[in-house]
Amino acid sequence: MMTIEAAITLKSKDVSGVGRERIRLLQAVAREGSITAGAKAAGLTYKAAWDALDAMTNLFGQPLLERRTGGKAGGGAVLTPTGLRVIEAFGRLEAEMARVLRALEPELAGSGISPLNLVSGFFMKTSARNALRGTITAIRADTLSAEVAVAVADGTLIYALVTSESLRSLGLCVGRDAIVLIKAPFVLIAPGADAPKVSARNCVHGNVRRIDVSGVNAEIVLDIGGDKTLAASITASSAEALGLSPGDPACALFDAAHVLIAID
């Protein structure tokens, strides 16, 4: 009989969900007491660790780490109660999934269906850089389309334009939790706290958390409140022209048609 090892990924159809590797990173940061040392212990670059931690915070809707100054390796970090629960729940989920798969395998023998085939559809991947959990606060619909407003942080709404059929098939309604997905290249950045007059439906205010620049491209990550982030992928020359630095106010601009909605 085939040996089954369950590999759980907590995604809610996000960009980069939470799998075993990211849980190990979270454990490493908690064990080492800093993000820098935790990233090294997990075999990740500092940027990759930050991206993973941002994705986890956005997905779960609450901070998993509390950052403190003066810790080892240049800055301390400890798990929040939510972070502890995530690690514990992940371990329990993997153990339970392994039990279920082992029970299913004999029953599916000879059917052409494996347990892994069966569960693979439950955990879908998407290439969107931004995945933020929130609550639907308003829906405006006509016969063909609907605009859905999702509150992802206090005072921060993201609008998505979906078809009326998607509205019905997903069961979207006011008060329901949802995840908004936005590819980073769809996000434009405008410096300053004042929203520019543009046709983009979404203008999300924030402050620059970090800027990563390569030879051609740059990624600007905004802190949009509630310990959540929004990333934009632009050219390196555009980033230089903006002249932004960490802490500066900025706005993320993107069209509602470029926002996808996923549900649990």
Automatic annotation (TrEMBL):
User: Which residues constitute the signal peptide according to the record?
Assistant: none
Which GO BP annotation is one of this protein's?
molybdate ion transport
What domain of life does the native source organism fall in? Bacteria
| Region of interest (Required for dimer formation and molybdate binding), ranges | 126-134
Q: Matching Gene3D superfamilies, A to Z?
A: 2.40.50.100, Winged helix-like DNA-binding domain superfamily/Winged helix DNA-binding domain (1.10.10.10)
Keywords for this protein: Molybdenum, Repeat, Transport
Describe the family membership recorded for this protein in Swiss-Prot or TrEMBL: Belongs to the ModE family.
- Name-wise, this protein is Molybdate transport system regulatory protein
